[in-house]
Structure formats: C-alpha cells, structure tokens
C-alpha cells in the first residue's frame, strides 16, 4: 500500500474510513498535553490535525472512570508497564515506571490530585534562560484549563477549602472534591493534629504557595462522580470535528526533507520535518505528511525515544544504535528528575469518610536548628554532585558546569526562596478496621537520571534510569521526612485511632529507629512516584536543553515538544496541573507562529 492510499479510522470509532495522508499538524501522542493542543488547534476549522496514539479509547473502562479505583489501572493494559534499570541506591531493585497507554495518557491512570506548585519554582524557569516563562505568565493558563466545582457544605465540614481567585470556572478540566469527603471524628482529629504539629493550614494550594496542609482537589466531576482525564476533558466534547483524526499506531521516527531549511528560528542549517513514520499493531509501516509541524507529546519516557529514533540526540548514543545523526543534541533523554515514594501503614478503627489530606514542608521543617549547617554543607557539595551525575550518565557530552548551574538554581529555591521541599499524603479508608497511613516523598531531589532508546527494533522497551538516591542528601531528606510522617501517626490524638504499625513492621522500623535503620528501610522499600519530568528540557542548549522557549526542538524548523519532558526543573505540585497549563500556552504559541 502506498502512503497516498493509507486508510485511517475516523476519530469517533465509526465503521466508515477516510483516505488521508497529510495534515497541517501531526501530534505524536493523545496524552494529557497532546489532546489539549489538538483541541485548541482544531478550533480553527481550516486547520487539520492528525493525532497518532498507540493507546485506545477507555471511556467505558470502569477502572479508568471510577476515581475510587485510582490505583487499579496501574499494571493493566492501559499502562505501559515500564521498569527502570537496577537502582543501586535502592538495593539494585528494578522499579515499576508507569505511564498511561490510552486516550488521555497518564491522566487516565494517575492519582488525580490537582496541585500546581510554588511560584518561585516557575520563576526559576525564566532564570534558566526561558524569557516569559514564569508563574505570572502561566497562571492565566492554569485558570483557562480549569473548571472548578465549589465544595459543598458537607465537603467544607470535612476539611475542603478554596479561594476563588486562584481557580478557573469555565475550562475543560473539572476539579473538585469527592462526594465521599465529609465531616467525621477522624477528619476533625487529623486537622487538629496538623495544627498541633505547627503545620499551618493553607486554604488553597493552587495560588502559588503550597506550604501547609489541606484537603486537595482532584480532577473529577463531582456530580457524575467520575475521573475527568484529558480525553474526557479535551477530546470527547469535540470529537465530531471533521478536521481532527485519532490514528492508532506508534510513531517510530520523524521524516526529514533531504535539504536543510533556512529559517530564522534556527539558522541556515536547520532540519525540516516533512512527516512521520509509524507502525500499526500488526507491524505494518505507514507514513504521514505534515504540512506545517510535527508536535511530539509522547510523554517523559517516550518523547526522547522518538527524537533519538529520528536522529536527534547524542551522536555517540545514536551511532551505537546505527542511527544517522540529524541534529547533534546531547540533552535528549537527560535531566530526568523523578521522586521516590515511601509508605507507612497502620491498622485501627477510623469510622471516617474516604479522604486525602496533603501536607507540604520546607527544609527548615525537616532539619530544624541544623538548617544553617545543612545549607552550607550542601552548597559546598554541588560541584561534587554535578560530577557524580555526569559520571553516572556515561556521557562525555554532558558538562559538569552546566549540571552544577542547574543544581545551584535548585539549591537557591530550597534554601533562599524557601520553597516546599517535601510532601506527605495522608489517606483514610472508608471502612471500620482497615489499613490507613501516609505516602511521603521529597519534592526536589538532586539526583538526576536519563531515558534512552535501547533498540531501533522495539521503541516500547526504553532504558529508564532515574538513579534514585545517587545523591546521598536525597536519602537524608527522605529520612527526615519519614520521621515527620510517623510523628503524626504516633501523636496523642491520632494514636487513639491506631492499633499497630503494619508497614513496615516495628521490628524493621521501631519507634526509636536509628538513621541507619531508616535508610535501610528506604533503600529496600522505595518505589517510583511517577512524577518524572525533564527529558527534553526547555532551557538553553549549552545547559543541556532540547527545546527553546517556543518549545521548538533545537536545530529544527518545525518540530516541537509539548509534554512533561520539557519541564526543566522540579516544582512542588503534581505534574498534571502544570502540563495542562503548559499545553494551553503551547497551543497559543503554535497558532501565532502560523
């Protein structure tokens, strides 16, 4: 079959088919970001958009739509089920690395918490060399994407609070609180205990300051009582648009014009994408032409694979894979930043509603009177840490001075700007005698890893190496946080509800556990928190950046990346809210470019 005869299924799953072989824009991935961009670009009926996605429509899958089953989709057919390489900092264990394989991407399988982050962290993006990327410029897009539901009286009694000036009420993404959130004796006890631990109540995490504790909104429709993922938000309401097509398949590489383009955006030696190559589930290969742009929204783990498969990346890695270098860009796949997760569980009587409370801490909360010495000692270690990151990457193309600059920006955020450094999620089950407890993770670990294509024969098997606890300070911070998490459960008020520490058993982590016992527990039990970012970072090329402030891949005229991989530095919120905002802004940037 010739490319011009390609038969593509229509978006809405009808039996009819359309002969199409070109679009104005080709979007690689129907995930959280890709569907936002597809929606906004096709607002213009003269624009055609083709979205290529290996996952499928899951609107009728109760494991996706029922928010109560938030963790059920993990490890199923709607999850890519990746694993990391063996993590030396975690007892050489291979860890699960989840990413959604469905329309809606990871928004279809995640925990749904809608938390943005601290304003100073977004301002740091601009400080890295991205003019116009800061909290004030993103805030309107946070609001544009959101449709917030005001909590009910019962939810307010259960601990929900909000400040209307921080929310949008006309967007596509429904946010709110579960119907099950209601007042209870345990909810009241939790709130009073937080206050007793000198953690301030924060009425709304989404105004650029997440310090303190509160109940957190989630991406769900409170009336229908269902998950509101990116497909339900941005695709289903507009799926009848004739200028939008979803094509099931896996993009393996971008196709290039034989001659370099001369564009002001990237100079006279600029690669111009003419389309993409993709394969269907039966292994048959096809091509599609892009009249204007190729937009990669394949996610933090898959976007680097598409770039490398297209000849964009570190020439040493590409040569080993037998791929001709199209653009020498060694930052592709590097700067992977993720969070490790730990869990404490107790058995006891709750008599409480299903609910989740978040509490965010600063470094000063974790280290108390030691904070001055820790600030100085960690600053003195930055160059050593940068060298360790470069050495672990095995890439001679990475620069220690560049990595050190990134670490210094992060250090300033933690110790000069006092952004939040750690998070605890306290969960309460709706039954009588049941397990309940806390997940906890550090928000801005200094360790960095990478993601690379392992084989041109199988793009579905990436090499994912987050290098958890490569930097010892990350483990030190996690231990300090674990102690705070358990302090909550052992406090006098809450202890009335608890019976036994179940995870880990007290013989593994006794009440008077030493730092060595805590560290041993962390290394043996930490998991991936699935908040990865950075593998195609938006920052200057000399710092290891992959895309410019307009999200265009360096060295190309018409290839952009729009997903979590462009986020250059950690922020305290969960990635989803920020991905929606970045994608909304990216759509405006793309529209203005043409």
From TrEMBL:
Entry's EC annotation: 1.1.3.4
Q: Which residues form the Glucose-methanol-choline oxidoreductase N-terminal domain?
A: 100-123
Keywords, sorted A to Z: Cell wall, FAD, Flavoprotein, Oxidoreductase, Secreted
- Please indicate if the UniProt record lists Flavoprotein as a keyword: yes
Q: What GO molecular function annotations does the UniProt record carry, in alphabetical order?
A: beta-D-glucose oxidase activity; flavin adenine dinucleotide binding
Cofactor (UniProt): FAD
Subcellular localization(s) per the UniProt record: Secreted, Cell wall
Could you say which residues bind FAD here? Answer: 106, 251
Source species, domain of life: Eukaryota
- Describe the reaction catalysed, as an equation: beta-D-glucose + O2 = D-glucono-1,5-lactone + H2O2
Instruction: List, from the UniProt record, the residues annotated as the active site of this protein.
Output: 531 (proton donor), 574 (proton acceptor)
Q: Which family does it belong to?
A: Belongs to the GMC oxidoreductase family.
This one is known as glucose oxidase
Q: Which organism is it from?
A: Polytolypa hystricis (strain UAMH7299)
